[in-house]
Amino acid sequence: MKWQTAMALAALGFGQGAQAMAQATAAETLAAAATVTGAEAAPPAAPTCELHVFPTENYIGFNSGLLSGFGIVGAVADEAAHKDRVATVKDLMKDYLGPEVQLAELEKVNYRARLGVADYKVVIEPPTPSADAIKADPALKAKVKALNADLKAGKRLTASTNPCYAEFLLVSVFYFKAMMYGSNLLVGTQFRDFSKGGAPVVSIGAVKNPLEVFPPKSADKVDAAKAELRDAFAKDFLEWADKKLKDDKAPAKAAR
């Protein structure tokens, strides 16, 4: 009798355990089904917007004096007279305001917010090359020619097909000194917004900011000249954004 009672209790315990296991399995199945259903119901994530940024290695220097007042011949002679000084200025701009410094200065002024693309993913592209580099390299010359054709046609400069896409280009850093106007820095800038579909909205131009210390005339002026050049670069962008980005939006001919 005792063994029959023990068997009955064991059977009861086994039955209760099996029932608990069945209930747990059912709960897990329902949870898994809910997870799958939730994943299937979630909308696909929108593609991350892209801002492709092209810094520049195209440094241009121009220095004019009294001879420029005598027409073309005077201008040519004046350019020859200042050839070495212009070369030095270009080297200094390359040293003080290289591509990495340009990007750092733009970050300091929150350039993406100024462009209206604060939440875009930034993709850094190769710098736009100098005229000297283009002349020295036939392959680079052909590449730049193709890029210029794409710019003119309103095509993208990269292979990205992201519908939410924009390009920000620095075309040149230009130092200009004239007897009547003093020394100034101009940065050729272009913003191409493809996010609206169709042809890009293009903002292009340059503004100037005065330079008083750059180029440095003595060793003790180097740090001040470097800081002034970088400050003028940042101011150029801010003024360009205020004056050109809002008012100078000309759609290009076509889109890729």
Note down, in words, how this protein is organized.
The chain has helices at 2-41, 71-81, 83-96, 99-108, 111-115, 131-136, 138-153, 222-245; strands at residues 50-54, 59-63, 121-124, 165-178, 182-193, 201-205, 208-211, 249-251. It has 8 helices and 8 strands; from the N terminus they run αββααααβααββββαβ. The protein folds into 2 domains: 1-42; 50-251, no CATH class. The chain has 256 residues and is of the alpha/beta class. Strands 1, 2, 3, 4, 5, 6, 7 and 8 form an 8-stranded mixed sheet that branches. Helix 4 (99-108) packs across helix 8 (222-245). The longest helix has 40 residues, at 2-41. Helix content is 49%, strand content 20%.
Summed over residues and divided by their number, the pLDDT gives a mean of 79
Largest sheet: 8 strands, mixed
Low-confidence stretches: 1-18, 65-84, 247-256
Number of strands: 8
What share of residues is helical? 40-55%
Structural class: alpha/beta
- How far apart, in Å, are the first and last alpha carbons? 91 Å
Strand content: 15-25%
| Rg value | 32 Å
